Amino acid sequence: MDLFLNESFPSGFQWATSSESFKVEGGWAEGGKGETIWDRFGHEHKVLNNQTADLACDSFHKVDYDTYLLRGLQVDTYQFSLSWARIFPSGHKDTQSEEGVLYYHKLIDALIESGIQPVVTLYHWDLPQALQDHGGWTNQSTVEAFKDYADFCFSRFGDRVKTWNTLSSPWVVSHAGYGTGKHPPEIKDYVATHNMLKSHAEAWHVYNNKYRKTQGGQVGIALNSDWAEPVDPSRPEDIAAADRYLQFMLGWFAHPIFVNGDYPAILKTQIEQKRAECPHSAPAVLPVFTHDESQRIHGTADFFGLNHYTSRLVNHSDGGCTPGPQGVGDFQAHVDPSWPSTASDWIYSSPWGLRRLLNYISIEYLNITKVPVYITGNGMPSEYSVDTLEDTGRIKYMRSYINEALKAIIEDGVDVQRFTVQSLMDGFEGQQGYSERFGLHHVNFEDPDRPRTPNGFWAASCGLHKPKQATNTQVFSSFLLSGHQEQWFPHNR
């Protein structure tokens, strides 16, 4: 059990909330926007209740409304993603939608006028369908297309946008989109990770070579990862299995960027062992970087972005010749039945895992390359119910996770500089449609005008009644920390 830490966040610490283009924008075919893989997925009736992102939250038409909500929260920063197909409908620079560009100009300008720093993600899962028709992330040509797209965005928005995420949660794209096939494009091919890493690196180099000197911004990547705790910490086999879990999730992307330009040795060794054990049905094949590619990828991040929501208990288990991380990695993942559940079947509240993961990242990836950690996504979904606007479940989840981040900063010395709460409002959550609600604002999806209502926790406590002399950091941290020192939160492991 861990006692609540009653301390303040450091001066200059940034509070943020977020959204993602296809989850909130709507306007799926307006202003010259091209089709995305999520448009196609929804239109092929592959989403819960045959829902689509066609209208979503209608944020494409509600810049002023959404900015008003952000001013009410008094956040320092708003992180949002661009729709590649809204800017380049075909995914290539020879097609350009000026109306799409103007939409993002309007949003960025409105944020700055409101004293809110825009943080922009270039890609959050919504690949232009025209690129997917030619293989998407499995096609090397997508690397060049992404480089051109990033270059264009830096040139048009970089005078005002000073923090960029190239990709957000690319492991989910690799695993669900190209591994299990549960997300679009429903393909199983691990070369997608290879090309996403190269795309990230090319975007970073474009900024570094062409824009950094004049714009003075920073470019990184937002990687998602659970924490993995051994089921039995006294068993070396479980300790090793938990490490493989982390290497197969976080290390797959973080090791090439932050360590040496190549995949983790443990991952490579494990895959080679499986190829030897399964000569007729190798469950995974890992592409190889050339020396020049490794050099180009290594060191291409000005910060470590982390999306984190939950943890797992992991033990060793022979996966045989079964594809997928658990089969190839020889581990099984579990949740403790005592961990509070959420509306998602994969997010269970285990806040102590965040602190352990932040310490792991600091040691594993940032011991030589000293860059700050930005928590680029943390939150939990609820189901719509009478309790939705009271938001009691999210209160406990967010308070405890934020406090674990504070412990990592104050007690462990981890350089965490930003915390992003997911998300500003409910949205289209992929396969789950509108059934899972991450928003600090409730959206009525039955009303075509898509009205937003602040959930009670945030409306009453995080800025709508902010004293004039209080800083944004004081508003968030004082509510989340004060008056609840008597509460204990599970450490468990």
From TrEMBL:
Homodimer. One of its GO terms (molecular function) is hydrolase activity, hydrolyzing O-glycosyl compounds. The keyword Glycoprotein applies. Gene3D superfamilies: Glycosidases (3.20.20.80). It comes from the Eukaryota. Keywords: Glycoprotein, Glycosidase, Hydrolase. It holds the Pfam family Glyco_hydro_1. The lineage of its organism: Eukaryota, Metazoa, Chordata, Craniata, Vertebrata. Belongs to the glycosyl hydrolase 1 family. The keyword Glycoprotein applies. InterPro entries: GH, Glyco_hydro_1. This is Lactase. GO terms for biological process: carbohydrate metabolic process. SUPFAM superfamilies: (Trans)glycosidases (SSF51445). PANTHER family: GLYCOSYL HYDROLASE, LP05116P.
